[in-house]
């Protein structure tokens, strides 16, 4: 049996990726918070590392770049909205265009509430990079599908025809988007109540 001096050294423990508890999802959530408070262009990977209390190299164990974090956040917002719009467009023809339009308005509100930081970030992009330009192209596609749904409702006599369908669509979803400026989850108004209120105001007005 070898003496202690002759024993081979222990193999080094495998390196840990950042602090315990910090996974890719946590890094993404904190990054989106910083992008929203400081601005994407003004936020560096170093800023994110300091906020998390880990090294920049630990960040790169989770993501390849700051742009990858932005892309993941924008996809989070857009994937939910795209799915909601596509469901409305492809809904059972027994549902009228107005019913489908109201459904997509309500679902858009719920998506905004559930993914508020990501949707907030989406609404602030200006096309300063290919990632942002791609997100803006996806938003335009959604706007076009929604405008067509409004046009169907107008043609069916379900919506007034003295306002252009494009303007109706912009006003409807401008109202939904404005929620990011004041709505905070956890308050007295839940997502279902908020979705119902927005849709009721939009389609029935305030008249008693």
From TrEMBL:
SUPFAM superfamilies the record matches: Homeodomain-like (SSF46689), Tetracyclin repressor-like, C-terminal domain (SSF48498)
Pro residues bias (residue ranges): 1-12
Region (Disordered): 1-22
Pfam families per UniProt: TetR_C_24 (PF17932), TetR_N (PF00440)
Keywords: DNA-binding, Transcription, Transcription regulation
DNA-binding region(s) in UniProt: 44-63
Protein name: TetR/AcrR family transcriptional regulator
PROSITE patterns membership: HTH_TETR_2
UniProt cross-references to InterPro entries, sorted A to Z: Homeodomain-like_sf, HTH-type_TetR-like_transc_reg, HTH_TetR, KstR2_TetR_C, Tet_transcr_reg_TetR-rel_C_sf
Start and end residues of each HTH tetR-type domain: 21-81
Source taxon at top rank: Bacteria
């Amino acid at each position: 049996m070898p003496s202690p001096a002759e024993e081979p050294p222990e193999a080094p423990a495998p390196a840990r990726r950042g602090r315990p508890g910090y996974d890719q999802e946590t890094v993404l959530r904190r990054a989106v918070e910083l992008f929203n408070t400081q601005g994407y262009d003004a936020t560096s990977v170093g800023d994110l590392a300091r906020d998390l209390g880990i090294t920049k190299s630990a960040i790169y164990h989770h993501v390849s770049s700051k742009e990858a974090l932005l892309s993941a956040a924008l996809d989070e917002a857009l994937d939910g909205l795209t799915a909601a719009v596509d469901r409305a467009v492809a809904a059972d023809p027994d549902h009228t265009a107005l019913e489908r339009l109201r459904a997509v308005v309500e679902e858009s509100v719920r998506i905004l509430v559930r993914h508020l930081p990501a949707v907030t970030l989406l609404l602030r992009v200006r096309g300063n990079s290919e990632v942002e330009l791609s997100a803006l192209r996806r938003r335009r596609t959604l706007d076009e599908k929604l405008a067509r749904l409004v046009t169907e409702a107008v043609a069916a006599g379900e919506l007034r025809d003295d306002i252009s369908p494009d303007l109706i669509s912009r006003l409807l979803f401008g109202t939904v988007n404005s929620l990011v400026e004041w709505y905070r989850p956890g308050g007295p108004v839940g997502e279902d109540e908020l979705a119902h209120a927005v849709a009721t105001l939009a389609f029935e007005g305030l008249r008693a």
